[in-house]
Amino acid sequence: MLKVGVLGAGHLGKIHLRLLNESQKYNLVGFYDPDAINGKKVANEFGYTYFDNINKLIDAVDVVDIVTPTLSHFDCAKKAMEKGRHVFIEKPITNTYEEAEELLALEKKHGIKGQVGHVERFNPAFSAVKDKIQNPMFIETHRLAEFNPRGTDVPVVLDLMIHDIDAILSVVNSEVKQINASGVSVISNSPDIANARIEFENGCVANLTASRISLKNMRKSRFFQRDAYISVDFLEKKVEVVKMKDAPETPGDFDMVLQNAEGEKKQIYFENPTISTNNAILDELETFADAINNNTTPIVSLYQGTQALKVALQVIASFEKK
């Protein structure tokens, strides 16, 4: 079992602590939180070992799980990586692209592994259809959330939209060509609602909307590709897969057939992929353990996390020009 320590015991940090404590792939050594009062409270309430010194915790483990505010990701990861520790970093990987690039260099220099916590990659609905998403040419995403002061220290792009940016980059095999975006601050000092149009070199276009001031929660993505439409509801963990194929010469009474302007006939049919029940956070942590133990590439590598951050920052730069 890999010895693991957690940095940060806030809302998400406590979830990580619980899951790592239950995991059969990790031995939870303890955690560090700069707020000693909160650290001791969490230790007393749940029985985890509290370290009052970050370096002592890093020295005692094989893996460091960083669940701190974004602004401190880089400093925490650098401390751990320079001591040869594997790092799991909550999204976004860092606050700046330059910081992320430095972590990539440290990962290579010390021969360690890192993973970024883009948890939607482990959402069972997305997992059920990811292999069916092949060369999508138009993508539309909506990620809407009710207002919560937690997370408003960063723009909504880094808080919410980056989930969809990462998912899109994982299925579009092409470089980004152009980005146009708009963002509006309503309650926070940073933008609370944003829309981005991302054009790729291969012609694919993605239209993303993210808001943290909505009256209801929504996390939906739709992928359009040749002869197929795929919808993923990340919140409800549901999918729709609608496909088309050449219609038979003599369609059945219940076959759905469309004819285009050129006279081609297509039969519409539905697929129902199996959606497995899982705990996405536990899965991302345990697959990281597998990557370390088997010396394989983590499912969301530091490089992929860096690419998602790069695009997110380009989105922010686009609407800051307006």
TrEMBL record:
Residue ranges annotated for the GFO/IDH/MocA-like oxidoreductase domain, each copy included: 156-216
Superkingdom per UniProt: Bacteria
Organism: Sediminicola luteus
The protein's name in its UniProt record: Gfo/Idh/MocA family oxidoreductase
Location of the Gfo/Idh/MocA-like oxidoreductase N-terminal domain: 2-118
